[in-house]
Amino acid sequence: MNKATLEKVFEYASKPVQGTMSRKLRKDIKIQVNEGEVYADATLFLGEEFVRVTCVADGASVNTYYDWERIASVRTIGPVE
Hints:
- The structure is a single chain.
- The chain is mainly beta.
- It has a single domain, classed as SH3 type barrels (Roll), CATH 2.30.30.
- It is 14% helix and 47% strand.
- The chain has one helix and eight strands.
- A hairpin with a 5-residue loop joins strand 1 and strand 2 (22-25).
- The longest helix is centred in the N-terminal third of the chain and has 11 residues, at 3-13.
- The chain starts with a helix and ends with a strand.
């Protein structure tokens, strides 16, 4: 999967955070990268060379970084309408 396609998937699942380059997951949307952890209420940063996912776990801010070239799949999870 190429970077442009992956960017569109991340953009679909999130909305811009005012005044920053970050994106917040849309309400009721969860995301999973490479069949790994499922993130809810996460903030994404789509950098040139990496994607950073920031979430809160056990009262701490946790950042997970993904290399664009090593992302094989992205799954979005949302409610049925």
